[in-house]
Specification:
single chain; alpha/beta; Rossmann fold; Methionyl-tRNA Fmet Formyltransferase, Chain A, domain 2; 2 domains; seven-stranded mixed β-sheet; six-stranded antiparallel β-sheet; 8 helices; 27% strand; elongated
Length: 314
């Protein structure tokens, strides 16, 4: 088959490699290079790097709605376009460009978690299962007909980063198994049940802030879901009010002798660990990072008297 590939981040790379194995990829379309680091040097998207390694032409349009880009897609004369985390909404004339339209690998079991951050919100919400959906795209936000769903469990201590890596590889499997079937007309597309749809909105940096009045399980899920970005954080309720990033936690057994009812209160901080009261239950802080410092074990933070019992995190 002749194909185009639309995708930008590292998540999309295994799908690009899978497509290159089964199709004649005419071009990779990705977002423009972006400045990174202190020097703001331009860095190529991961899919561009891999496309150049594979000898596939790269196209990085800045505008999609001029009509000129849709004409370029039509002129490519491809059977299908595969879209994986491209990062921009494709207009109808672009969706109609390939002979069989555009197929998306979406990182959820649609119709649950439509939108920009399905992996993070699935973990934050304590889901036990996720997956990828191979979907025929329409003009809506992840509303197209499903072709096939591929499920995996979410493990109790999975971070969003852990799940993302598994779903990225699962997406490649979906491409190898499903895209030839789609081009051959072997799928019967299934309309999504829109009444069951949930949304996974774009993340903001402040989403990482921990709400200690939530339950211990919810706090633990929040920390997992916010890793690696934007990262879970809290603040010391001291005069400095410094930010502390929380990298890893665990739900702890109920503590004997704990008398505080104020969520965020440090119940215990010693060589055995740092334990914080939540709205319902106790969370153990395992790995933390103080503002301007490197990550450390929470028990080392306590050993250095950086945190003591009775302090309140907000």
């Amino acid at each position: 088959m002749r194909a185009l590939f639309f995708g930008t981040p590292e998540f999309a790379v295994p799908c690009l490699r899978a497509l290159a194995d089964i199709a004649d990829v005419q071009a990779v379309v990705c977002q423009p290079d972006k400045p990174v680091g202190r020097g703001l040097a331009l860095a190529a998207p991961p899919t561009k790097v891999v496309a150049e390694e594979l000898g596939i032409p790269v196209h990085q349009p800045t505008k999609l709605r001029t009509g000129e880009f849709a004409e370029w897609v039509r002129a490519a004369n491809v059977d299908v376009a595969l879209v994986v985390a491209y990062g921009r909404i494709l207009p109808q004339d672009v969706l109609d460009g390939p002979r069989l339209g555009c197929v998306n690998v979406h990182a959820s079991l649609l119709p649950k978690y439509r939108g920009a951050a399905p992996i993070t919100w699935a973990v934050v919400n304590g889901e036990h299962e996720s997956g990828v959906t191979l979907m025929k795209m329409d003009i809506g936000m992840d509303t197209g007909d499903a072709l096939e769903r591929f499920a995996v469990p979410i493990l109790p201590d999975d971070t969003a980063g852990d799940l993302s890596r598994r779903l990225s590889d699962l997406g490649a499997l979906a491409v190898r198994r499903g895209l030839p079937k789609y081009v051959a007309g072997e799928y019967t597309p299934e309309a999504q049940n829109h009444a069951e749809a949930t949304m996974a909105r774009l993340l903001e940096k402040n989403d990482g802030r921990i709400v200690w009045s939530a339950s211990a399980g919810a706090v633990h899920n929040h920390v997992r879901g916010m890793s690696p970005w934007p990262g879970a954080f809290t603040k010391l309720s001291s005069e400095t009010g410094k930010t502390v990033k929380i990298h890893r936690t665990a739900c702890a057994p109920a503590m004997s002798g704990g008398t505080s009812v104020v969520p965020g209160t440090v119940e215990r901080a010693d060589k055995h660990g740092v334990f914080v009261r939540t709205g319902n239950g106790v969370v153990e802080l395992i790995d933390v990072q103080l503002e301007g410092k490197k990550p450390m074990a929470a028990r080392d933070w306590a050993a250095g008297r950086g945190i003591t019992a009775g302090q309140i995190l907000v």
